[in-house]
Design brief:
Elements (H helix, E strand, L loop, with lengths): L1 E2 L2 E2 L5 E3 L8 H9 L5 E2 L3 E2 H5 L3 H5 L10 E6 L3 H12 L5 E6 L4 H4 L11 H14 L4 E6 L9 H10 L4 E5 L13 H9 L7 E4 L5 H11 L3 E4 L9 H11 L8 H19 L3 H4 L2 H7 L7 H9 L3 H15 L2 E3 L6 E3 L1
Parallel strand pairs: 3-11, 4-6, 5-6, 6-7, 7-8, 8-9, 9-10, 10-11
Antiparallel strand pairs: 1-2, 12-13
Length: 338
Amino acid sequence: MRIADLELGHRPLFLAPMEDITDPSFRYLCKKFGADVMYTEFISSDGLIRDGAKSVKKLDIFDYERPMGIQLYGHIVESMVEATYRALESKPEMIDLNYGCPVRKIANRGAGAGMLGNIPLMMEMTRAIVEASTVPVTVKTRLGWDDQNRIIVEVAEQLQDQGISALTIHGRTRAQMYKGKSDWTLIRKVKENPRMKIPIIGNGDITSPGEAGEAFDKFGVDGIMIGRAAVGKPWLFRHVKHYLTTGELLPEPTVSEKVDMAKLQFSKSLEIKAEPVGIYEMRRHFSNYFKGLPHFKEMRLKLLTTMDVEDIFGQLEQIRETYGDHRPMLDGGFWDKG
């Protein structure tokens, strides 16, 4: 698969941009386990052009992360173009336009998935940014605003006509938010449209190697994007790649292995963001690393409430001592050792 002149190999795996999740510490683990393409957390064009500290910080890209995309969102063409110029200073491999975020405070002001309610503005903005950018421009969007307006087939053609180099489609409408099941049949319809020449990346409900394989084999996409399923499970990329290559399922990591990953990510979080932010922003990841452990409530409470760094590392070691080499079985909630 290629995005413009960027060669990404066969069946590439993308890490979805997720606010307050896909920071450099998490991306470090995902890249380590095989993510082919990653993105920054989405960045407000208004925040960026006003030099908002949080927005500017999100532009940080490390060489080992590449190829990297910077994802921007906004509802004013001029601001988005100015933000694009600013983002290009970080030398990303691509600029990605967020036309898919369903969160009310963003969509209701016309940004993110709100763009699905104003297609002429979406096209005007896309064309302006393609003309301003010196790197490929890609788009991430949804099937449409609601079930009565599932317009992605027509929108995909129009976006391609504006000059984008790849399109990621999340298989839900804005009205669905993250509920219900993704509809990949419309993603397939876009891919099978003879007018479409750019790569199509599918997103939504990819939580296992088997689902990833089905996305490629049944729906014909060029790449898949994994989001929430990778939170606390960065090894999912390795497992998917192994399955796509061999047809075999790798075993779930042991609890001890998960402790090593959590400690590495926590160390990176502290290195990049320092205290207390590096602690706060790891808590969601900690919860997901150890989700489903039996009799874990008390340990979880301690892990997610202490503000002492050494204490947190100590709690992680206690989890190792308690659960050691146990791992969940692939077929359900039984536990196995080794």
